[in-house]
Amino acid sequence: MVRERLAGAARAALGGGRRLERVERVAGGSRKGVYRLVMDDAATVIAYLWDRAENHWPEAEGDGDLTDPLSPALGPDLFEAAHTRLEALGVRVPAIRLLDRDGTHSAHGTHGPGGLAIVEDLPGESLEQLLARDPGAAAPVMARLGRALEAMRGHRAPAYGKVAVVDGGGASRGTSCEGIVLDRALRDLAEAAARDPRIAAARDRLMERLLSLAEAVRPRAEHAVVHGELGPDHVRVDADGNPVVIDIEGLMYFDVEWEHVFLRIRLHDAYRSLEADGLDEDRLALYTLAQRLSLTAGPLRLLDGDFPDRAAMAGIAEHNLRKALDLVHA
């Protein structure tokens, strides 16, 4: 079925009378299908398929609310807006070969709801794999990633929200980034407490800590470009050693501290080469606890559904649950 849905789009993207020879699922996608399309002349591209059947997350209230900067980012419109913004900033992203919102290029007139993108294939390593294999070889890639982050941080917007919303003249919910984060963290806390007795036992302390940290944050009028989930698995390394940012649909204008907390959590000691001066310590403290709760509640919620790699997701939840509790037990 997937092959039939993608064959026409692959031919339209690559042209030249090519025929789709095989479809390979690429590991990692939880909200969209990611496939490598191999043509009969060995040319390859990557297909992103936004389809309900490819989304392993159980539906939750507010999932489709684009005015919430932290709501799930799905579909070709958000992808294209993010791609346009990052390219304008000189940040390397996979080249778009075809963008199909309505199924025009599929084999039988439709590839299903949600949309499809065909993009450049980057068959080498992820930054995560390179860091594990050869940290020395990863150093120049990290330096280039640092310059990309500087370019993103240097582009300021007077409003926060998803890039597609703000660049399209829309407005986001709430009154501040820290307010949005606090609301999300309180929801994550409630969800995690309902699923794990250790969080339930510490719920009052965690709530008090969140409210105290949020109260210390001072207002801010400008916001930077933020990927939102920029872990080393969301950076590919091209043949020239350049970092290529992927899974970009969630790109937003937001507090840069949100990005750096996530980078610090995911990169551990390797984060040192990406450290930035002038970050707000109060925001870093709030966002650290908020992301630990998000990385607990989110995986636990995902395990309510049919996500295949259950052991890995349970491990993420357990690690971050312990880290969240450490922040109130210290």
Give a concise summary.
The chain is of the alpha+beta class. Helices cover 45% and strands 13% of the residues.
Describe the structure.
The chain is of the alpha+beta class. It has two domains: 2-120, no CATH class; 127-329, Alpha-Beta Complex (Aminoglycoside 3'-phosphotransferase, Chain: A, domain 2), CATH 3.90.1200.10. It is built from eleven helices and ten strands. It has helices at 2-14, 76-88, 127-133, 135-154, 163-167, 177-195, 197-201, 203-216, 256-267, 281-302, 310-329, and strands at 20-25, 33-39, 44-49, 96-100, 116-120, 161-162, 224-226, 235-237, 243-245, 252-254. A hairpin with a 4-residue loop joins strand 2 (33-39) and strand 3. Helix 6 (177-195) packs antiparallel against helix 8 and helix 8 runs antiparallel to helix 10 (281-302).
